[in-house]
Each structure stands twice: as C-alpha cells, then as structure tokens.
Design a protein that fits this description.
Layout: E1 13-17, H1 22-38, E2 43-48, H2 53-57, E3 64-67, H3 73-86, E4 94-97, H4 102-110, E5 115-119, E6 130-132, H5 136-140, H6 143-149, H7 169-180, E7 190-194, H8 207-221, E8 224-227, H9 234-244, E9 248-250, H10 257-266, E10 269-273, H11 276-283, E11 288-291, H12 297-300, E12 307-310, H13 323-334, H14 338-351
Parallel strand pairs: 1-2, 1-4, 2-3, 4-5, 5-6, 7-8, 7-10, 8-9, 10-11, 11-12
Amino acid sequence: MSHHTDTQPTPKTILVRAPNWLGDCVMALPVFRRLRETFPTASILAACRPHLADCFSASPDVDEVITCPPSGGLKTLLALWNEGCALKSRNIDAGILLTNSFSSGLWLWRTGAKQRIGFSRDGRGLFLTTSVAPTKEILAAHQADYYLYLLTKLGASTMLDNPVLVVPEKGRKEAAQVLAGLDLKPGTKTIAMAPVSAYGPVKDWLPERYGEVAKRLYETAGWVSLVTGLAKDKDRCQQICDVAGKGARNLAGATGMSGFLGLMDAADAFIGGDSGGSHVAAALQKPTVAIFGITEPSRTHALGKFVKNVGRGGMVTPDLKDPAVQQQAREALAAISASDVVAAFTEVCEQASL
C-alpha cells in the first residue's frame, strides 16, 4: 500500500539529479535506496551525465536513467533548458538536486516538478520550492550524509548504510574480454589500481610509489596490479608498470565506464587515491586502500566493510586550484611511503580473510 504523510501526497514520480563525478554518484546511491524504501510504488528517475549512466542503470532502486548535458557555457545552458522542458510531460511530483550548480536548478525548474528540493547554493533559490540552507554541520558531514539530508524534506529516512553497486552484465563481459587478453596464470590474485583522479596531481600519489607497491606485492605474495585509467592516462600508468615489471599491466583506456566497473568487480582488491575508483571498489565489497593527501577522509572516505585510508587529510573544503593548496597537497602525498601503503593493504586483506 502506498502511504501518505500529513503534509503532502505520496509522490508517484521522483526525479533525482545525480552528482557529476563517479565517486559522488556512488556516495549518492543510499539516497535511491531510502527513496525506494519510503515510496515503494513510485517511479524513481536518475538524471546524470551520459558517461555515468552505468552507475545507475543496474541499480534495483532506479527505474529509469535520464542523461543530461554537463553544466557550463551558453550552449549547455540551452540544452539544459530544452531537456528540462522535455521532461514536463512526465508529471514529476518531486525533484531532488544532489548537484550545487545554478544551471541544474534552472533545469529542474524547467521540468515542472511540483516539489523542487535542493541546497540553497549558487544563487538558485528562486528555482526551488524547498530551499535547504547548508549548515556548518552538514557541510562538514560525510558527502553521503550531505545528500541524504535533503530527504528529510520528503519525510524519508536519512539512515546511511554502505552503497551497493551492481555491475551491468555488459560491464562484466567487457572486463572478462580484457582479462582474457592478459597473460595471467589461472588463480592469479589481482589488484585494481586507479592512480589518476579527475583533479590530477593535487590528489594523485606518485607513480613511482604505486610502481614500488605493485612490485613488492608481486614479489612477496604474487599479486598482479591492473592499472586502470582513461586513454589519456596511459603514459602515467606506464610509469607505474615500468617500475613494477611483471607485477603490473597497463589497462588505461582498455574499457569504457561499464567495463571499468566490471574490472573492479573482477579484481580481488583495490589501491588508489581519493577518487571514484575507491568508492566503486568499496561498494563492491573489495578490500580497499585509499590514499589521501590534504583532502579530509572523514568527508569523502569510501563506504564499505573493508576500507583503509592512508594519509593525514585535514582540509574539509580546500580550494584545489589554489597554488598554495596544491603545494601542500604535493608535500602531503610525498610524505606517504610505499611501505605505508603495503602495510595498509596487508592489514585490510587480513580483515577480509583474503
């Protein structure tokens, strides 16, 4: 039976504008879980950038994935305007913005959603029916709790549990194909390595250190590291493989997003930075080591059963474009040794009985 709250009727169609980065999308998955629990008969739509669709398409809590253009520039503003308008016929009862941008507020307003919920940021309050002021506490909370906080406005639970990611069948097939092309002995234990983040050097540990970790784990325990990344990251990933020798394979650009999820699922464990890969690995219940420079782990650490963070963190919302902050980030990352990461990896694998 559908239920009603005292204040408003139960929404039949709920549209959620998902975040723009892979890690953030994984941290947003509990939002969809809580919505599904609270409104079991509602149609739940996830709107996201095209390359992130695979993150939601296999989720049991999402009925449909709608792709929308990234924000920025007049051309995309026009596309957002038109695409928002195209959703009017869907009779959306409630729209929730997990993004902070002005343009996504405009887009949600154009969809004609009866209730439009979001944080009052980037001057978009006029587009929202329910504008939520981000308090100091909520800005310092874990990113997943930040997203869940908006659900209080729909009378849904904001309880946080670990995200659960389901890898689409096509992703598993794509990964199996890539792995079949590698010269790995049957039964080889593999580590998915994601050394490059969207933010680049300000979040990325040194390639030679990753290489040293891969080399040591291969020589001492037979682990082979699958170094993942986009095609443009090939050279950086190759630096790791050059140091690791037989202990690593360069898979940069080998798959799309779906295949990347498949590779993460096929691997036995994960090592990477404070970026999407660590969130995916943790959501897939893999032993996960995430390397932090200055960004604060308590805000963005991966949510999972077997997760170990390395690095001191400390900055809650650093301006990663500030040269002084970038310098501090480089120093913080350089202070983490290969031994620190090997020790964390050994510990998290023991916890997972691997």
